[in-house]
Amino acid sequence: MAKHVHLIGVCGTAMASLAGMLRTQGHRVTGSDVAAYPPMSDQLRAMGIAIMEPYSEKNLDQRPDLVVVGNAISRGNPELERVLDERIPMTSMAALIHDEFLSGRESLVVCGTHGKTTTTSMLAWIYEVAGNRKQETGNSDGAKWTPSFLIGGVAENFGTSFRVQEGTRPFILEGDEYDTAFFDKGPKFLHYFPDAAILTHVEFDHADIYTDLNAVKTAFKRMVNLIPRRGRLVAFDGSENVTECAAKAFCTVERYGFGKDSYWQAVDMRHEGVVTTWTLLRGGQKFAELSLPMAGEHNALNATAAAALAAGQGVPVEAIIEALATFKSVKRRLEVRAEVAGVTVIDDFAHHPTAIRETLRALKSAYCGRRLWAVLEPRSNTLRRNVFERELVESLSLADEVVLAAVFKSDAIPVLERLEPEHVVDALNAKHVPAVLCADADAIVAEIAPRVRRGDVVAILSNGGFGGIYTKLPLALEKLPKAVAHS
Q1: Which of 40, 126, 265, 427 has the fewest C-beta atoms lying within 10 Å of its C-beta?
Q2: 9-19: per-residue pLDDT in tens?
Q3: pTM score
Q4: Residue 141 vs residue 404, higher pLDDT
């Protein structure tokens, strides 16, 4: 029966995707946020879902049948307070996904500190290609491969972050280790009960909710413990933390990576510009020659994990090869936002020093010989803290020029825990890596626009809007043709 479902915090990537999923099921959907912001606000409006802003008790005057409380919502939010006062039925995003969409389906979950959005997108595209190939040959079971999916970003092959198919087809989910709601502090992925899963990396992250690495590992161990004996876990072979988390699995565990003893081993990896090719071995025997139109060893590892899980679930190797060769990445993952007067501006969703390191390594490989700028906004709850200051310096030192912005909403971080960008800048300069600190996006644009030259690559690293720098910098470059034209 159709219901009126209201989502508090609807402009988050996962919440907006859930809103769309509910809409496809025939429910009436409304949502609210402190302020509507793209890209998800654009996606919501395109689906005809009303966004109420800002938060207000009045947004619940029509008394919805169910309220979904986003994990960023805490006590004191006026809508949440009315929900509690009037006992309007409420739930979390992850719990509703389980109850509404996963029953009777094969749940395939991609987890890990890094790479899960890209890997989930790859896995969904592999299944999509498998379904299309079957249907093109007149095979009636092609539809069984066509997946439902929920991804924490916009997958460019699909142009969306979600899709819901009818029937018992597989549901492919990005399994987020962040907490679920103010009333459920466990990670979201514990609601998804995977039939099979990928575990990419396990590192200390989300310093706002996890006290240390052991707490993070405990969360992933609990996820592994949910996989049934008949299931499978595809786990990265290059991490002791992953090994520890997978050690007590009751299901089959298949390791992937570069280790000679791994069941899925990537060998003979080659990088040519933005294309990566390699040979994938399965149990020591050649499985496939793979090609991916993305730079970076980390992306090849993501593709290897997706290929391994899909193959183990019965997806034909031909579909895997075709899908990876035609994969178009995810919005905000090494996304080229502009090319102006010979300067390439790239957007990447940086949230952790390891992710920054892999992004810069990939760009140095793809744009070999070109000067690389790293422009970082410390915005994630991990980067805003000083816990990884040394690792951040090491990662940023891969760039030729570094520009740091001030810590986003620094007042929300206790002084003793807060990252001091000045320390990072000083450490980089001591390593002979030119680095400067700027107050905001406008100051950064004013700083670097006159200094860039033809052939430079500017990597903008942030998991947020970064003051509109993605459009401000290209516009500034267009106005300074002489400054960027010299070599």
Answers
A1: 427
A2: 998 888 999 99
A3: 0.87
A4: 404
Where exactly are the structural domains of the chain? 4-91, 100-325, 335-485
Pick 39 or 484 by higher pLDDT.
Answer: 39
Q: Which amino acid is at 61?
A: D
- Would you say residue 351 has pLDDT above 90? no
| Structure tokens belonging to residue 257 | 């990576």
pLDDT band (50, 70, 90) for residue 140:
low
Q: Which residue has the higher pLDDT, 45 or 174?
A: 174
Q: Count of alpha carbons within 13 Å of 341, Cβ hemisphere only?
A: 21
4-91: in CATH 3.40.50.720: yes
User: Which residues, at least 6 apart from 149, have a Cβ–Cβ distance to it below 8 Å?
Assistant: 120, 124, 155, 158, 162, 163, 171, 172, 173
H-helix or E-strand spanning residue 322: helix 317-325
| Strand ranges inside 156-307, DSSP E | 160-163, 171-175, 179-181, 184-187, 196-199, 232-236, 252-257, 264-272, 275-282, 285-292
Contact 373, 457 (CB under 8 A): yes
335-485 belongs to CATH 2.60.40.10: no
Q: Does domain 100-325 have CATH number 3.40.50.620?
A: no
Residue 348 has pLDDT above 80, yes or no: yes
**Residue (of 245, 162, 249) closest to 201 by Cα position:** 245
Helix axes 421-430, 389-396, angle to 10 degrees: 50
CA distances to 62, 74, 131, 176, 291 from 19, in Å: 18, 20, 26, 18, 35
What percent of the chain has pLDDT above 90?
A: 71
∠ Cα 309 311 314 (to 5°): 115
Spatial CB neighbours of 65, under 8 Å, sequence gap ≥ 6: 3, 4, 5, 89
